[in-house]
Amino acid sequence: MDVTSGSAVYQLLSAAKTFKEIYVSEFTDGAIKEFHKWLNKEHGAHDWSYPAKFLAELEDKGDTWEENEDNVRRAIKKVVKWDICGGPLQPHEVPQVDCVISFWVLQKISKTKEEFKNNLKNVVSQIKKGGWLIIFTALNMSYYRFGKNMDKHFFLAIDGNFLRAAVIDAGLVIAKFEILPRSKVSDVLDHDSVAFLLANKKLGG
Ligand SMILES: C[S@@+](CC[C@H](N)C(=O)[O-])C[C@H]1O[C@@H](n2cnc3c(N)ncnc32)[C@H](O)[C@@H]1O
């Protein structure tokens, strides 16, 4: 399950190579509509061919970029609206899943570190015992610029130690945690590194 996708598809291209059924959640109606446009190949849908081509080149297994995209379309089982700050998702919406991915979300929706920890627990509630959480995000980032006027938007600045402790506090065991220093300088974001984290929800937790 991708918690929360926006209307993005790049992160699902490789996920759909492993997972035959994928749930997607999102908070805004606009992003859900955009995502459906792409799913249904509607006129005016966002073009995600760049990451689909990139994956085809990277894997070099003979899958075309169109197959990579259609693979995602086939795997999507349900798209649900979920306000993570409002608590766990109702079980009738989506059952607990084997793996949750969360990219660039928790710091966007949390104003404080306390809120981050609570929202992370809501995300973890969607994972089966023994299942997995994958987080990809930026560290020490306080804003990003977005939109026509490139306005600044808040992003909760956290470091690697905080992220590690919050994940353990949420009942997970960290299997892999990599921090890569920022490689490109621009005024669009002010992070100093990106973090990739893989963690397992304790069976007894
Ligand atoms: C920076 S985007 C990341 C989207 C996507 N994961 C990606 O990698 O492009 C943050 C997302 O959080 C969503 N969001 C905002 N408030 C939310 C909330 N209370 N609960 C869940 N998602 C929320 C936004 O609609 C947006 O899609």
From TrEMBL:
* Presence of keyword S-adenosyl-L-methionine: yes
Residues annotated as signal peptide: none
Gene3D superfamilies per the record?
A: Vaccinia Virus protein VP39 (3.40.50.150)
| Keywords per UniProt | Methyltransferase, S-adenosyl-L-methionine, Transferase
Entry GO MF terms: N-methyltransferase activity
* GO CC terms in record: cytosol
Taxonomy, superkingdom: Eukaryota
Q: Name one GO biological process term.
A: methylation
Instruction: Describe the family membership recorded for this protein in Swiss-Prot or TrEMBL.
Output: Belongs to the class I-like SAM-binding methyltransferase superfamily. NNMT/PNMT/TEMT family.
Matching entries from PANTHER family are given as:
LOC100127826 PROTEIN (PTHR10867:SF45), NNMT/PNMT/TEMT FAMILY MEMBER (PTHR10867)
> What's the name of the protein?
Uncharacterized protein
